[in-house]
Amino acid sequence: MKPPATLPDFRNLGVWLRILLLAQALRLAFVVLGGPGGQPWLEQLLQQSVRFDPPLLATVLLLYLLQPLLARTSYRRGLVLVLLLAASVAALWHVAVEQGLGLALAGSAAHSASVAALLTGALLFYFDWRQQRLSPALAEARLAALQARIRPHFLFNSLNSVLALLRRQPQQAEAVLHDLADLYRALLSDARTLVPLGQELALARAYIEIETLRLGAQRLRMQWRTEHAPLQALVPPLLLQPLLENAVRYGVEPAPEGAEVSLEVYLDGSELRLFVRNTLAPGPLAAAAAAAGGNHMALGNIRERLQLHFDAEAQIRRYHTDCEHVVLVRLPLRKGAAESAAE
Q: DSSP H helical segments within 35-169, as ranges?
């Protein structure tokens, strides 16, 4: 299923950088490959800067200011508005340079407007292609691979734990079944939809409760540092559970004495930071676990979804010390009702 086309978020730092860099690259390619002969391309490039750079920056700034309006507009209408805006700014700047500054520019104001519209159309085509490439709706195999992170033997062990509890502690067995249901319900959710952080934390707690029942509280020593977490912040679904599963699988399970796992979530200005840590046993075991570093497929899937929703403003990275493995996720703070990347 092809996701609906959407305009880029013109208030996103990554979008800004891509617009500026790609526009300059297209201008350079035009000058080098298609510019008039008899004049060095670097000299042509410098001469055209007066005509090209100010309207480019002005258009980007206006798009930043108009982003709330564009976000509420349909894709086709927004596309027309962006093209008209770029063409109008280029034409007005052409007239201002010739009549206000007294400088002669090649071509007419209509020519400048048409070039700006063509350049803007090329950039919007790139952003649409990039969204289609990153969209999990077009990568069902990747989403299925992420869903497969809940490994069959995890389900098998969990059900065995439920069977063992049915006679002795039926209420706890019922609670585990509820946790499993919540976990698998999240696996079937739309990966393009952002969800409240509080919902992700509840899912993470459900997963840890199941694993604690299986491994024992002495082996899986979980620490929650989420008292300052903004529960209404919007994050991609299945952001925390795969990271916690990596910590359990590569930190707790290999160590007979178990390990400490911690989840820390807090705000740093307008940036949300999430840390998932697990201690490593000393010696060769720690080196092997740190080298393995968890499931790269899941980390790559999370990285792609962060790029889809937040572009360059989000980051996931992992590192380790002699005794601890750490995964850090940084993303901009968004609040409000759950939204879709396709909206």
A: 41-71, 75-95, 109-134, 140-147, 152-168
Tell me, yes or no, whether 302 and 181 share the same domain: yes
User: How far is residue 274's CA from residue 262's CA, in Å, rounded to a whole number?
Assistant: 10
Q: What is the CATH number of the domain that holds 189?
A: 3.30.565.10
- Which two structure tokens, joined as six digits, stand for 324? 């601890």
Q: How far apart are CA 77 and CA 288, in angstroms?
A: 55
Please state the pTM of the whole predicted model. Answer: 0.64
For the chain, the C-alpha Rg in angstroms (whole number) is 26
Residues 188 and 117 in one domain: no
| Cα distance between residue 172 and residue 168, in whole Å | 9
Together in a domain, 109 and 58: yes
If asked whether residues 66 and 197 sit together in one domain, one would say no
| Contact by Cβ (8 Å): 173, 166 | yes
Distance CA 211, CA 303 (A): 25
Beta strands in 201-343 (DSSP E): 220-225, 234-235, 259-268, 271-279, 315-320, 324-332
Chain Cα centroid distance, residue 305? 5
pLDDT tens digit string along 277-322?
999 876 655 555 555 555 566 687 788 888 878 888 899 999 888 7
Distances (CA, A) of 102 to 40, 105, 204, 328: 25, 10, 65, 55
Q: Give the pLDDT score at 229.
A: 93
- 3-class SS at 213? helix
Residue 318, SS3?
Answer: strand
Tokens 């391309």 map to which residue? Answer: 41
Boundaries of domain holding 57: 13-134
Asked whether residue 164 falls in the same domain as residue 182, the answer is yes
Helix (H, G, I), strand (E, B) or coil at 225: strand
Confidence band for 227, pLDDT divided at 50, 70 and 90: very high
Task: Read off the amino acid at residue 47.
Answer: Q
- What is the amino acid identity at position 244? L
